[in-house]
Amino acid sequence: MHKILRLNSAGHPIDWINYQTAARLYYLNHIICECGSSSIRLRGGYNRLKRHRSFLNLNSIVSTNNINKLDYSAFTPPLVNTTLFKRDGHQCLYCGNIFSHNQLSRDHIIPLSKGGNDTWTNVVTSCKRCNNSKGARTPEDARMLLLAIPFIPSRVEYIILRGRTILADQMEFLISHIPKSSPIFQRYTKP
Ligand SMILES: [Zn+2]
């Protein structure tokens, strides 16, 4: 089932919510704007007297009346392999080939044993073969060239990376909130 993109009252994306949470927000009158161009139809109960089933149409993007002020600059998403591999488009940043999740690994550019950190800017997606041949060496020592510079996903980029099935209007909205220079912008807007 598709998730609903929740915005704060200023129209900034906060996160995905499931339809139960969205239905509750509708019920509590917390939705101040329906900003998407598509909707998800929920089936309600069957009314015996009226002999019809009730429906609730949830908009794909909703803005809610919370006064949650998000600090976009200080945001660092949790570092997990699923999001890391998606950040790099499931591409090994050494050999350039695309792999499935279980053929990939987290490579520390400066190895942990040499004082490197387990942080977004020191980790890249690597196939297991490249990771093995690099071993506990830096790319320079191993004579392996990095194909891209690792970066910390912004809050909106992180929302994109966490989305499983993103509707076209949701993607269009999210993409409009990230800079054109972002590798994620370039990946998702490629013709
Ligand atoms: Zn590789």
In short:
The chain has 191 residues and is an alpha+beta fold. The chain has seven helices and eight strands.
| Beginning-to-end CA distance, first to last residue | 27 Å
Order of helices and strands: EEHEEEEHEEHHHHH
Number of strands: 8
The chain-level structural class is alpha+beta
Number of domains: 2
Strands side by side in the biggest sheet: 2-1-6-3
Radius of gyration: 21 Å
Structure description:
The chain has 191 residues and is an alpha+beta fold. The protein has two domains: 4-73 and 155-188, no CATH class; 81-142, DNA Binding (I), subunit A (Orthogonal Bundle). It has seven helices and eight strands; from the N terminus they run ββαββββαββααααα. The protein has helices spanning 19-27, 81-87, 128-134, 139-142, 155-162, 168-175, 183-188; strands at residues 4-7, 13-17, 31-34, 39-47, 52-59, 61-64, 104-108, 123-127. The strands form three sheets. The chain has a four-stranded mixed sheet. The protein binds zinc ion (ZN). Residues 92, 94-95, 97, 126-127, 129-130 line the site of zinc ion.
Please tag this protein with its features.
binds zinc ion, 191 residues, DNA Binding (I), subunit A, 7 helices, 2 domains, alpha+beta, 8 strands
